[in-house]
Amino acid sequence: MKPVFEWSTTARPDRCIVELYDSGAYTDDDAALAASESQTVAGNGSHIYIRSLQPDIRVTVILRLWSSPQAPAVNVEETRPVALASPTGELVINQFTLGPADTVQLPQPGSYEGHASWTGRRATADYYERILEDAEDWEGEQFTQAWQDCPTRETYTFDLWLIEEEPR
User: Fold this and answer.
1) Model pTM?
2) Which of 51, 63, 110, 146 is the residue whose CA sits 20 to 30 A from 135?
3) Which DSSP string do the residues of 29-43 spell out, in sequence order?
4) Helix, strand, coil percent content, the chain, rounded in steps of 5
5) Domain extents for the chain?
6) 55 Cβ contact list (under 8 Å, min separation 6)
7) Interior angle at CA 88, CA 5 and CA 24, nearest 5
8) pLDDT exceeds 90 at position 128
């Protein structure tokens, strides 16, 4: 079975955080933000926080919408159940204090449930730490190139399905 909708973007995990929320329903949540420290992905139903282990190398966020519930992904570092309400159908992928990285229009506004999974999180953080250890006299451009040359892609995938349509 193929997803009914698939989309991806990249974002810089400013202060190690990437956010996902409905464009008309921004509600920050200190408890969910704190929970992301131990859970990697945490939310309050309308706002999801993704916690990277490094603040500079861009991460990939993949959104897949399915017509029915799916089993959690396999061959990933970990998975977490997630819920996300999107009354407008427009999601924002935000780089914490840097601002939005991208937006996406969902095919259907409403409430979604599903799973978040990730790969490359630890390997990207290990690469990041190795570069910092080896780069005492580096300039900004050298860091930029090193971040772009990371051999591992840190990826967060959200497999979601609609559980309740938003009234139009």
Assistant:
1) 0.94
2) 51
3) -HHHHHHHHHHSEEE
4) 20, 40, 35
5) 5-119+154-165
6) 12, 13, 14, 15, 16
7) 125
8) yes
Q: Which CATH number fits domain 5-119+154-165: 3.50.50.60, 3.90.1150.180, 3.40.50.10140, 2.60.34.30?
A: 2.60.34.30
* pLDDT above 90: percentage of residues in the chain: 81
Q: Give the DSSP per-residue string, 43-93.
A: E-BSEEEEE-S-SSS-EEEEEEEESS--PPPSSSSEEEEEEEEESSSEEEE
C-alpha span between 134 and 41 (Å, rounded):
30
| Band of residue 86 on the pLDDT scale cut at 50, 70, 90 | very high
